[in-house]
Design brief:
This protein is of the alpha+beta class and 404 residues long. It has 16 helices and 11 strands. Helix content is 48%, strand content 11%. The strands form 3 sheets. Strands 1, 2, 3, 4, 5, 6 and 7 form a 7-stranded mixed sheet that branches. Helix 11 packs across helix 12.
Length: 404
């Protein structure tokens, strides 16, 4: 039952999260696709195809769609153990597409897979409320590391945790799409996830330890899957993404994109132990990680700083304007709430930007804080300070390339 501002924010974030049953359903579906692609009769079985999640499903920052008419977007990588001499981008995409098409037929899916610029989209029946974007890929760590060194990012290139799982992907808009070449587009979702995890190592461990104690688990804390717990960083990002979704419900094309919010939030996070403290640090400092290179606004991919997540801002100024407008509004909305003495008094503007019904439902179970609760909150603040000091002492950085 909510008793503090953090309890309310935690409950709202929990309601925004994908329900465990829906998560398990999505997980079982993409595992089934992986088994299909790797079956003996598969035309690509010789290349040991493997399916893995990327994006918000991998990072633990999935946010429930605004309406039941919208769907969860489950982003997947289909990795084949092959070389670029075995495929062109086009032939790789077609090879994966044939098997995805057969899977849809065998499963009696009403909608055929749709081919996008980079991936195949698998549409499930109405009511399932999710679709899967399957991105064909090949291993590409060596070229990825070489490219990083060519751009002067040797510290990242030499860090296998950040680069060893880099991939080459398909893009039918590229001129070399149908040619045998070493020049493929690159991506690194697993490396990004490793960096993101490094930004919350202390709190991830603490949350797992608390879960193990609560559930009387005797196994090692490290045996608890990451997706079983949520850190203040992940919760804060879910709240910020929901705030963004509500604020730009009528302008999906120009709303701030999730990868920018996630990256800047992770940079600004300092292992705070509560959501309220995390939100305050993130909203105060996230803009400090926006760089300016001449006339270009630059938000670097932390595992490939040569990639600018804000590259569309120059040609579409409204994207930059909307980000700045959203950040100003988010700062105002959350600050107003955290300043009020009573946790159950959520400002009208914040209610609207998180979902009025959602907030009201959370507050229905609220009750005034007790002395014990206030003491507990104080203890959490002390733990947060200790965690921050530990991060500063050990020198963990949000920008690994800064060591150069």
């Amino acid at each position: 039952m909510p008793q503090t501002h953090d309890d309310v924010l935690e409950n709202i974030a929990d309601a925004l999260d994908i329900p465990p049953s829906k998560f398990e359903e999505a997980k079982s579906r993409y595992e089934a696709i992986g088994e299909w692609l790797d079956r003996d009769a598969s035309s690509i079985a010789a290349y040991d195809p493997a399916i893995s999640p990327q994006g918000s499903f991998l990072l633990g920052t999935v946010t429930r769609p605004l309406t039941t008419a919208e769907e969860y977007d489950v982003d997947l990588v289909c990795l084949l153990q092959a070389a670029k001499t075995d495929f062109t981008q086009k032939s790789l995409k077609e090879a994966v597409g044939r098997e995805v098409e057969l899977y849809a037929q065998v499963q009696n899916m009403k909608k055929r897979p749709e081919e996008g610029r980079r991936c195949w989209t698998l549409q499930y029946a109405d009511g399932t409320q999710f679709h899967m974007d399957i991105l064909p890929a090949l291993p590409d760590a060596q070229r990825y590391q070489v490219t990083l060194k060519e751009h002067g990012y040797g510290a990242i290139a030499d860090n296998p945790e950040l680069t060893s799982q880099a991939i080459a992907i398909t893009d039918r808009a590229r001129p070399e799409y149908a040619r045998v070449t070493d020049d493929w587009p690159q991506s690194n979702p697993m490396g990004y996830a490793a960096w993101f995890r490094s930004r919350m190592t202390v709190q991830l461990h603490e949350r797992k330890k608390a879960r193990a104690m609560r559930d009387l688990i005797t196994a090692s804390v490290d045996d608890i899957p990451d997706y079983k717990v949520k850190t203040p960083l992940q919760r804060a990002i879910q709240l910020l993404k929901r705030h963004r979704d509500c604020m730009f419900a009528g302008d999906g094309e120009h709303k701030p994109i999730s990868i920018i919010i996630t990256t800047l939030a992770a940079h600004a996070y300092n292992e705070e132990s509560t959501i309220s403290e995390a939100l305050q640090s993130i909203l105060r400092d996230m803009a400090n990680y926006i760089e300016y290179q001449g006339n270009e606004v630059y938000i670097a991919n932390p595992v490939n700083p040569a990639e600018n997540f804000a590259d569309k801002w120059a040609e579409q100024p409204k994207k930059r304007e909307n980000f700045e407008r959203w950040l100003t509004q988010a700062r105002r909305d959350f600050a107003l709430y955290l300043r009020v003495n009573r946790f159950n008094e959520v400002p009208q503007q914040l209610k609207e930007h998180l979902g009025y019904r959602l907030v009201e439902k959370t507050l229905e179970t609220a009750k005034p804080a007790t002395a014990t609760t206030l003491e507990r909150t104080g203890d959490e603040g002390g733990r947060a300070a200790a965690a921050i000091e530990e991060i500063r002492r050990t020198g963990v950085q949000s920008r690994p390339w800064a060591k150069l």
